[in-house]
User: Fold these one by one.
Assistant:
Number 1:
Amino acid sequence: RSSDLDNRIVELYLNRDEIAIKQTAEKFGKRLFQLAYGIVCDKQTAEECVNDTYMKAWLSIPPQQPRDYFYAFLKTITRRVALNCCRNRNRLKRSAFICELSAEMEQCIPAIDNVECSIDDMELRRILNDFLGQLTDENRNIFVRRYWYMDSIIDISKHFALSESKVKTTLYRCRNQLKEYIEKEGYIL
C-alpha cells in the first residue's frame, strides 16, 4: 500500500536526488535487512544485499515509477539480490535449505531445464496469483512465508502460534492443491 512518504521518496528518485536513498534506508532498511538475512543467514552479506537494493532502485527509477507498490518493488529487488548471493556463494555446493524448498515446490511445479520447454512465466504468475487468492488468509500467509520469504517451519509456527505439524500439513495440502489447480487451468507441466 502506497503512502504519501512513499510517493515523495519515488519522486526524489525520479528527480535524481540522493536523499531518496537515505529516506529509503530510514523507512525500509530494517525490514529489507530482515528479508535478506532470512535468505543469506549472514549479517554482513545481508547488509550488502540491502545496499545493492538501494543501488538497483536508483538505477531502475526512472524508468520504473513504483509509486503504488514501492515497498513491494524494494522487497522484490532485495529477494533477488539475496538469492543471487546464495547462488554465487554456493555455486559448487548448493544451500541445503534452498534445495529443500526447491524440492518441495517441484512436487507441484517441476523444474524444467530444457530451453525449448521453458515455462511461460506470465501465465504461471497469473495462475499462482489466482490460486493464492483462493486460499484462506492463514494458508496464504503460511505459504507465502515459506516460499517467498523462505521462513523455516519453526519460524512460521512461532509467528502464527501453530504447531510445526500443523504448518507442515498446511504446506503439504497447499502444494497438492496448487498442483491440482495448475493442472485444472490446463497449464502443461
Note: The CA atoms of residues 30 and 67 lie 20 Å apart.
Number 2:
Amino acid sequence: MAIINKEHKDRLFSFLFGSESNREWTLSLYNGVNGTRYENPEDIRFTTIENAVYMGMKNDVSFVLFYVMNIYEQQSTYNPNMPVRQLMYAGKLYDKYIQMNNLNIYGKRIARLPLPKLVTFYNGTEGEGDKILHLSDA
C-alpha cells in the first residue's frame, strides 16, 4: 500500500494562491469566491502564518484585501472541526495584525480590524460534500 503525503496538496495550494509571485492567481481566486472583479493584485497583503512563527500551527493562505482578512484553507480529508481551527488561525492572525499596526487594544479607542472571511476548500471523497460548517456546532 502506498503512503500518501497529504502536505503535497497543501503546499501546491499555498504555492498557487499564497505566494507573492502568484498574486494574480490569488486575486482570481478571491474574485471567484466573492463574485467580484477586482483587478489590482498589488492591493493584496499576505498574512499567512508560517510554522516557524507559531510552532505547530500554520495556515495555507491568508491575506488582507479591501479591509477583509481572508483565510483560505485547502483540505483533502474531511474535518468537521475546521471552524474551530479557522477560529484559532484568525486569533493568531489578528494578534499579528495588531502588533504590526501598533494598535492599542487596551486604550479607550476602538482598534479597527479587518472583517474576517474564513473559507475551506474541500476536495476529498469522504464526508458531506458541499456543506457549510458552523463554529456554533462545536
Note: The longest strand covers residues 68-75.
Number 3:
Amino acid sequence: MKIAIINLQQAYPVKKSRVREIVREVLKQEDKDAELSIAFVDEDEIRRLNKRFLGKDFPTDVISFPLETKRRWVEGEVVVCVPVALKEATKMRMDAEDEIMLYVVHGILHLLGYNDIRKKDARVMHLLEKEVLSRFGYKVKGL
C-alpha cells in the first residue's frame, strides 16, 4: 500500500500520520490494497480542478480521480479543499479536523466505487464515513 500526501495549502496543519491511519482503515474495511495520492489544496486550486475536469466554476469540498480499480486494488487521487472544510466546520459548529477527515474518507469511498447521487446510496456512504471516523474519535454531524 502506498499513500502519498501532499499539502499545498496553509490554512490548517494537516496531520499526515493520522490521514494515513484513516485511509488504511477504510481500505482494510473494504479489503483493498491501493496506491493513492491525497492532496490538500486551497480554494483557487480546487476551483481550477473543478472547472477543468467537472465543468463547474466554483470551489468544492473534495474531488476524487480514480485511475484504476480492480477487484482488490485501487489507484487514484483525492483532492481536499481545506478552506472549504474550515468554512463548513464553522457553519456546522464542528471541529475543523473532523470535517477535513470526513472529506478524506468521502473521497476514498468514491475511489472505491461508492456514490452519493441517490439518497439510498448516500445513506450507505455516510454510514460508512461515520463508522470509520468514530473509530478514531472524530464526530460527524448531520449523518
Note: The chain has a mean pLDDT of 95.
Number 4:
Amino acid sequence: KEYMSRVRGGANSTTIRVSDQRVSAFVSRMDILVPLNKGAVTHVVERLSPETVILGERERIADDEGVESVRVLDIPFNQIASDLGGKIYSNVVAIGAIVGLLGLDLDRVVSYVRQFFSEKPQEVIDNNAKAVQAGYDTVAQQDVPDELRLKLKTDPKIKDELLLSGAEAVGLGAIAGGCTFIASYPMSPSTGVLIFLAQHGLE
C-alpha cells in the first residue's frame, strides 16, 4: 500500500502480486491497473508498459498521462454502481471485474463478499453481491486477452501456512523482539500495526 497526504490532495494506491510461487519483493511493472479516480493513471505512469491493461472508465481517465499507450477495457464502474443504489458500490463492481478478467471462481468471491458485509443490513449485503456479479458480467462481454487469465496450480502442502499482512508481520516482529510498550499517534499506514499490537498485548 502507498499512502500520500489526502489532506493535500495526494493519491493512494495498492499493489497486489498474484502467483502460485512465493513472492518476496516489489516489482515496478503493472500488468493490470484499476484506476478509481481521475489522475490515478498519471500517478503510476512510470510503471505502465505496452502490455498493461487498464480496467476503468475511459471517459474518466481520458486526460491522464499514459492512457494512449496501453489497452483500456472500458468498464462503467460508477454507472453500474449507481444503478444498484449508489456510487459507494463502485469498488465492489471493480472487484467483480477483476474476478472476471482473471477467470476466478465467482461463487467463492460472492460468498466472501456476503460474509464480509454480514453485519450490514440485508439490502446492503445483496447489493454488494449484485455489484460483484455486475462487474463480472461486464468483463465477460469484453475481448479479454487470454494471457491475462490466471492459470495457477493448487498446492495442498501450503494449506496450513499463515497468510499475513505487512502490518501483522511488523506487529509479530515487534512482539518477538520484546516490545512491551508503544506510544504512537494512529495514522495510516501505521494504524494496522497499532491495532494488531493492541489485540495481542498482555492484559
Note: The first helix runs from residue 40 to 43.
